[in-house]
Amino acid sequence: MSHLNQQLRTLVTGVASGIGRSVAEALRNRGDAVFGVDYQAGDGWLQADLSVPSERERVVKSALDELGAIDVLVNVAGIYRSTPFGDSSLKDWQSVWAVNLEAPIDLMSQVFDSMKSQGFGRVVNITSVHAKVSRQDALAYDVGKAGVEAATRSFALAGAEFGILANAVAPGFVRTQMSLLENGIDEADTEEFRKQYVETGRLPLRRASKPEEIAESVLWLSGRTNTYITGQTITIDGGLTATF
User: Fold this and answer.
1) Residue 194: inside a domain, yes or no?
2) Is pLDDT at 22 greater than 60 in this prediction?
3) b vs e for 47-84, b when ≥16 Cβ sit within 10 Å of the residue's Cβ?
4) Which of 10, 47, 102, 114 has the maximum number of C-beta atoms within 10 A of its C-beta?
């Protein structure tokens, strides 16, 4: 059977909630065989700590054992910790980079041979507008997301001759667990958000996105109908970074 007609075999990280859950659901609805991974325990995915190199090896081996090969990799899993300059250390930064930077790069490296051998592959990395715009308390997060975008371009160059395309999706404000404040309120529902982003028009669409809106772009970039976009970052931020 032609590869063009085969079911896509897909590895998705961070599937327990938010963008990862929406991406996994969208890909399953497309017909993909989805192997999910998350730090949280749950039914329907493999529990793993992606900050640990041996765990990442276990993830790829388990996915290959179950799927037979990996056609698509979607790196969604990520963490946020406050790391302001002058009040954070290398140890603090590395704890963020282990999940947000090292894990996506390592997983891309590990799936490369599978994609190369079949002459087809799609990689989509979830980054953030933080890769290009910053705030004072987000040093490690900013650097990690910028690094993944650079790695996405590098992977796209390495994979081009083998039919492998790699891109990043950079969301702005999204209603997920990561956007919940300590009091359980979503940051997009706060008075501060309304005054800073909605009333001023700094966020032109005047609302945070829903995870499924991010998943729509991942769905297309990871599929066979994307045949010529590679090494790019698609920003999905409601116009946030178009303003100044």
Assistant:
1) no
2) yes
3) ebebbeeebbeebbeebbeebebbbbbbbbbbbbbebe
4) 10
Residue 107 φ/ψ, nearest 5 degrees: -65, -40
Look up the domain containing 88 and give its range: 6-179+209-242
Report the alpha-carbon distance of residue 26 to residue 30 in Å, rounded.
Answer: 6
Mean of pLDDT values over 84-111: 97
Residue 159 has a pLDDT of: 98
Unique residue bearing structure tokens 């190369």: 116
Nearest to 21 by CA among 48, 1, 52, 43: 43
> Is residue 174 within 8 Å of 238, Cβ to Cβ?
no
How far apart (Å, rounded) are the C-alpha atoms in residues 53 and 56?
5
- Alpha helix stretches (DSSP H) within 52-207: 53-67, 90-97, 103-118, 139-159, 191-193
Structural domain count, the chain: 1
CATH number for the domain spanning 77: value is 3.40.50.720
Weakest-pLDDT range from 7-11, 152-156, 164-168, 184-188: 184-188
Residue 104 domain-assigned?
yes
User: What are the catalytic residues?
Assistant: 141
